[in-house]
């Protein structure tokens, strides 16, 4: 078995020791005589896993008691629609801060269910910066303010949580949850698709403040109601049990590694190393304003488009995978999620330096 | 490692050779250097898996070309709501045939989006039979007729596809898809949560006729539109890639076993064996009318409630798990999905016979 250095943007690299554990108990989990995915979500064993995983996430993120933690399905994209279905009405207003392609999608999916206002956007700057806070035009009547702290495609990340007053702040943290310490109490709701820093695709973690749940209307199907899922402890219907189990292993791994302060410093160092090589190369380029550069996703371009195919082919031959940029942007992208080691980053920068020397 | 005889109603037993294969390639799938769950759903390797798995399902079920096959999320429960969102309007009528708890839930989740008529129900018979077809009061204006061919909790199964004229027939086949041959062309749509006969929870397979997709309105979020998912080949957003992969392994296993004709005969024999022991015991009982008995889920009762705890404890000690009945019905239940072997059924009936002898 040879494991590649995996820079995929998502689904993405998982910690190897998580995969080794999952592998070792795939046919017999916890002496049950069955795989975790063969057991009832309402059985004693899975219920214990569910409770412990929630507590581990609460410990890691310091989630206050007046927030519920939900393990749902549908991907972040479904929640783009569920958020206004739960917290607003079609004739009410919600503010959206758009700093990349995912913010744009969040607006598009929300539109049938709320008057989605774009209170700030950097589309005019090709999503290479964060619009300055004093230029945002927030509406005080907004039911919530939605933003995307890290834009996976454009590689743009907020370095601080924006101040939005009394309006609940909702964040799609699919690509930066658990990447560094965070003050959860500043948010009305945080949600994240699991396939970057939590585990595998098909699971969404939602962290939502109690008072927001009081808004969930009876006029939607119960399966779409966050209040119903909270009341049912995410067992209103059958959850993605294997995805939840993998998340539970990742949470344990994060605790063993020392928690989010340690992970955050590691992520900062990985990102600094790669941006440093890009900026110092005279060959590669990253168009994002330095103060808005993502620690998680580093898009970069080669000086000539015709070098892209040989770059990817040679990288693949060297065991470096997942480097092709998103089709919306082109170029390359290296995603540096928690499970990507500094050793993988060193292997990448060595390859990049050598490639630049040969083609520069 | 000791594998139990697993009669769980879902999530449920998987074929052991599927789990062994998944285990062997969990850290390095197809020489990619990564787990299947660490790779982009839009990469060459996963796209090939997606295409091949769809073809395998088409081969197994004989799905005609004018049907789309989708691999989605949300569980069947979410699709209870999505079906009327896609195929009807709140002021239109849809007919529901209710033969158990899942049919009731389907109605409840649909109610915000359609005038859900109960065209037939066996609730007055405590869901122990199928209402005779000539007693159904179908509405010719109905946008569709929905039914649940197999009711997992009550153990009631249609032995034939009902005739409903020109109105599209929609079936929640979560617990009996792939359990025997089926004429797909009689349906407008078939859907199934994967956690019984397809694979693991967190995946839903939808088989939908092209003409129904033309009904999907622009007024709902795109993430809820079956037409969008069909246009995007189930990659409109990130699918549950590991769940899809497991399904692909199960489809290959079914083909190796000889397909649905072979599987159907095997399931018939397993069910006959267990019902025979129950009926012949003078100890156990199953309340369902013989013509409506499920091949997949066999609820049964002990003569005295106080025997239930020792039955479950002794069964567990003998390596028989997942036998506790649903909390809505009580008693016991043995689910006999495709992955449950005749050997497991023989172990169960031996145990049951011995238990009856000692407690009768």
In short:
Chain A is built from ten helices and 13 strands.
Overview of the structural elements:
Two copies of one chain form a homodimer. In chain A, helix 1 packs across helix 7, helix 2 crosses helix 7 and helix 8 packs parallel to helix 10. In chain A, strand 3, helix 4 and strand 4 form a beta-alpha-beta unit. Chain A starts with a strand and ends with a helix. By secondary structure, chain A is of the alpha/beta class. A seven-stranded mixed beta sheet of chain A has the order 2-10-9-8-5-3-4. Chain A has two domains: 241 residues, Type I PLP-dependent aspartate aminotransferase-like (Major domain) (Aspartate Aminotransferase, domain 2, 3-Layer(aba) Sandwich); 101 residues, Aspartate Aminotransferase, domain 1. The model of chain A has no long low-confidence stretch (mean pLDDT 97). The interface between A and B is large, with 70 and 70 residues.
Jot down its keywords:
homodimer; 360 residues; alpha/beta; Aspartate Aminotransferase, domain 2; Aspartate Aminotransferase, domain 1; seven-stranded mixed β-sheet; two-stranded parallel ribbon; 15% strand
Topology:
Two copies of one chain form a homodimer.
Chain A: E1 5-6, H1 16-24, H2 44-61, E2 67-72, H3 75-87, E3 93-98, H4 101-110, E4 115-121, E5 145-147, E6 150-151, E7 156-157, E8 169-172, E9 189-193, E10 204-209, H5 210-213, H6 226-231, H7 241-257, H8 260-281, E11 297-300, H9 308-317, E12 320-321, E13 332-335, H10 342-359
Parallel strand pairs in A: 1-12, 3-4, 3-5, 5-8, 8-9
Antiparallel strand pairs in A: 2-10, 6-7, 9-10, 11-13
């Amino acid at each position: 078995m040879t494991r590649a250095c995996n820079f995929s943007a998502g689904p993405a690299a998982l910690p190897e020791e998580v995969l080794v554990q999952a592998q070792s108990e795939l046919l017999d989990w916890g002496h049950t005589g069955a795989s975790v995915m063969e057991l009832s979500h309402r059985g004693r064993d899975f219920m214990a896993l569910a409770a412990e995983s929630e507590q581990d996430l609460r410990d890691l993120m310091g989630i206050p008691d007046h927030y519920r933690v939900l393990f749902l399905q549908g991907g972040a994209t479904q929640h783009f629609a569920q958020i206004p279905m739960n917290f607003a009405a079609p004739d009410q207003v919600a503010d959206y801060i758009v700093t990349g392609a995912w913010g744009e999608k969040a607006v598009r999916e929300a539109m049938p269910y709320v008057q989605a206002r774009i209170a700030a956007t950097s589309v005019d700057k090709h999503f290479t910066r964060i619009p300055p806070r004093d230029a945002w035009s927030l509406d005080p009547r907004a039911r919530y303010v939605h933003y995307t702290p890290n834009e996976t495609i454009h590689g743009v990340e907020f370095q601080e949580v924006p101040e939005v007053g009394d309006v609940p702040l909702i964040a799609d943290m699919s690509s930066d949850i658990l990447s560094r310490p965070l003050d959860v109490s500043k948010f009305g709701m945080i949600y994240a698709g699991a396939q970057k820093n939590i585990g595998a695709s098909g699971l969404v973690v939602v962290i939502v403040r109690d008072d927001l749940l009081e808004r969930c209307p009876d006029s939607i199907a119960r399966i779409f109601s966050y209040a119903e899922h909270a009341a049912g402890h995410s067992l209103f219907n059958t959850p993605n049990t294997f995805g939840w189990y993998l998340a539970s292993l990742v949470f344990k791994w994060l605790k063993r590694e020392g928690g989010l302060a340690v992970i955050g410093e590691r992520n900062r160092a990985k990102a600094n190393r790669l941006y440093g090589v890009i900026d110092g190369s005279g060959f590669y380029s990253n168009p994002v304003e330095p103060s808005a550069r993502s620690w998680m996703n580093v898009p970069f371009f080669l000086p000539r488009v015709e070098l892209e195919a040989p770059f990817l082919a040679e990288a693949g031959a060297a065991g470096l995978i997942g480097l092709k940029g998103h089709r919306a942007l082109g170029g390359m992208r290296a995603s540096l999620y928690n499970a990507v080691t500094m050793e993988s980053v060193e292997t990448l920068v060595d390859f990049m330096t050598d490639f630049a020397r040969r083609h520069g």
